[in-house]
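Message: A physicist's question: would you kindly supply an amino acid chain plus fold tokens?
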Amino acid sequence: MSIIPCTSVLVIQFFFLISLLSFKVTSSSRTEEESLIQWKNRLSSSPPLDPSWALNNTKNLCRWTGIVCGTTGTVSEINLSQASLEGTLAQFDFNSFPNLTRFNLRINNLSGSIPSAVGTLSKLTFLDLSSNFFDGNIPWKIGQLKELQYLSFYNNSLIGTIPYQTTNLQKTWYLDLGWNYLEAPDWSKFSTMPLLSHLNFSYNELASEFPGFISDCQNLTRLDLSRNHLTGPVPEMAFRNLGKLEFLILTDNMFGSNISSSIGQLRNLHKLGLSANGFNSSIPGELRLCSNLTFLALAGNLLVGSLPLSWANLHKIEELGLSNNLLSSQISPHFFTNWTELVSLQLQNNQFFGKIPYEISLLKKLNILFLYDNKLNDSIPSEIRNLGELTSLDLSKTSSQVQFLQQWGSSPSLLSYNSSTTTLVERFLLRLVMRSLVILDLNTNNLEGELPETMSLLNNLEILSLFTNNFSGMIPRDLGKNNLNLKSVSFSTNSFSGQLPPRLCNSFTLELLTIQNNNFTGPLPDCLRNCSNLVRVRLERNHFSGDISKAFGVHPNLNFISLSGNQFLGELSPEWGECQSLTKSQKDGNIISGKIPSDLGKLSQLQVLNLDSNELIGEIPMELMNLITENFNEKYCIGKGGFASVYKAVLPQDGILSVKRLCMSNYISTTNRLSFENEIKILTEVQHRNIIKLFGFCCRKGFMYLVYKHIKRGSLGKVLYGEEGETELGWVVRIKIVQGLAHALAYLHHDCSPPIVHRD
């Protein structure tokens, strides 16, 4: 019997172990490949995901696009950021990736909930699902990712409370849950996160006092809690412990009546935002100790008193915003000798009085200067003309502006100017040497008179905004001849007359043309037909005439056009069907004749179409009118009110909609119909989570049809007063409903332009 040498046995065992390891790696990789392909098959992307993701390419898994392998040959990183992915994570098998350390899906179109299985990725150090459409709750198992250092769910639609298990992530230095709909949890259950340096909870629904655990996160350098419903004072402990803070934004909350003097302890601050918090005290002088500040925003409070003279110590300040307060004092010249880095100074809507110090001319880097709506009642210093970098200047409601502009003469970089004096405009434009002017915005004042011919000499002009004034006469005939960069023109709501300049859009760069509510006459300029960049056109309520079939061509970016209330003739061109971005088309109240072109049926994005009060014949070729509810059969009726009935409509592409059908003759008088339609048009632009989305409307044969997003389970009234209300709607839920209504009304009243006042 032969004896095998010991060394041979070791060699055999070594190769046996190598073969086992190879089998394990191959098996694991194959599982990963299959899992990735299975997930890919449930996704859609445009352009399609790289063809390297294929089962016939299994030997090259580590070369697949967005895949990185570790030393064991298994997947360690998945990076598919900005890949235009659409789908969910429901079919992603997290268990197949035990060695995954980085998972990056930011900026895609992924939706659905975040699976709790994400908590099985025990080696994960980086997780970024930001800028998608994920909804539902944050899974509490996220707290099992003990190695996680970077976590971002920013800009999704997540709801519910923030799980306290999040603070189990003791190695995490970056945590971003901003721009969701998250609610405040029981902060007492949260632990300190000792390594946390970046924390963002902004733009959520947090309604509580200042989160206590934050005060113990002593390595924080960046904290953003803006746009929530946080109340009460910021704890003194936060000022004592958070000495490393460089960025602190608490804007749009309700953090008490006083700005604590302890804020001076945050001496490393570079940016501080305390706007819109209801502060009604004076400004603490201790802010002078924050000498590294480059950005300071205290706007939109009720601050009183004067600017502390000690603020002259803020010699690094670049942006200072104190607008919309009750500050009242003279503006000390000592500030401007030290604020030499200042780029933006906004003191508008206060009660400052006295002179504008000539030392303001020392701010050589200043781009923006807003002093309007104060009590500054002395002459404007001519030295301001030395501000060579100034791009935006607004000194409205101050005196002696004419003298100032006569002295100004020439400024090489002034891009926009706002004023409110007629004579000022005349002299300003007549003396105009500012050939570099890019933006001229004089909107919403009481300016009157005619526009000078010198306006056509503004060779670099891109935006001309004169709306809502009392200007009259004709537009200078050569406007557009030399203004070859003109992109936006707004003359609306004035008393202009005559024809538009023939070369207004000579360079074909025009994107926005809003000239409604004037007395313009004649045909439109021929050049308008070739402006392929047009996005928005409003010509309603003038006296334009001419053949509409020749006035417009194919405008692929056009999304809104209103020609209502003019005297246009001719027929509708089939080319309108090629304006694929069109969402609102209003051509009512003209003398347009002929048959309605069937090409309008191609406008898949169209929400509003109004061809009323013309001489057209034929049917509107809209899918909605052909498919909806079998000509409003009663079996589709889901509700009735005093003036309207609501029908359920199922469309192949758009899903389920609700259509409210109103009889115009019974519901509204003829004289108020135009006003009513204008209100409806505005409502189609409203977007708020607590307001049912109005997609569009149309008028046909004495009826108005309002198309809404369909909400299941019937009306709120049915739930409130029906049987299910007794069991499902306790007081907690009812209070949330009231809060939701309050938010919706506040949005309509304060965040819409123009404001929408709900008076039902």
